[in-house]
Amino acid sequence: GVESIPLAANADSEVRKLHWFVDETYVGTGTPGVAISWNPQRSGHYIVRAVDDRGRADSRELNVALVR
Known about the structure:
Blueprint: E1 5-7, E2 18-22, E3 25-30, E4 36-38, E5 44-52, E6 57-64
Antiparallel strand pairs: 1-4, 2-3, 2-5, 5-6
């Protein structure tokens, strides 16, 4: 199967939830410092974005190479 990639971020102490997006597609909601799993369906270039429950966002670029 496809390997999952853990997505995790730290946040200020008042933040309770982080909403994760990959290329504008919602992936899931987690808590700061705890990883959620994302299973990319293809190799390629992605933008991973975390939005906290205060509406603040940060993003990173990610290149994925799936090995068959």
